[in-house]
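U., I forgot to send this yesterday:
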Amino acid sequence: MLILTRKIGESILVGDNIRLVVLEIRGRQIRLGIEAPADIVVLREEIAQRLADENRRAASFNYAEVQQAVNALTIEVAHHPALRSPRLKSPTVTIESQALGRVTVSADQIFTFESGLPGFPDNHRFALINDHLQPPFYCLQSIDNPSLAFVVTDPAALVPDYRPKNGAGILQELHARGPEDLQALVTLTIPPGRPREITANMMSPLLINPQQRLGKQVVIEKPHYSHQHPILSVRPACQPQPGAYSEASPDPR
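Result:
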């Protein structure tokens, strides 16, 4: 471990393009400013660990319990992922999915997450499968790892005014001309044996570009969005919830 001493206003360079500046020292707290390229995600360690842990929990589900949870929901929503129809004679891939059994998907259903997902950095290709659950629920199956899959949904089905703000760096990385090119999805966590305790990770949506077949999981570090948003609650899931905000930054620095 390299140990350096810095004063207020002094900085540290990490590589050629990351700069850390000491902005303020107040008691036992230090405020740091971080300058980094837009494609480098900068998170507090506890946030990054929470996101990775939640992804691991979301990837551990029983398909029968998923169906129980989905059947208990009464969601009416007109928002669905803008999936491209498979091209005629499009190449297909067959996966021996641990969660779904043998599935065959078109190349047009496969999205590339160049950065992987927190907790699963080596998995880059995922198929968005829309014929195993009723919309707005879908399966996101890893092509690289048959044992890895998620249940996802359109967050607008849960919080109607949920509209994460997309920074220029995200748009560029996903080859999007504007926010209208992107579709948001959120992962669902179904605790084993407790399907009615299903939650949605509203804090870390998956942004996908259906036309370019690219995706990225981002972070909305706002107190109004939780990584364990309860779905089956006293308040009907299709109703707006107080305190939901549409302005948020997906790439906290």
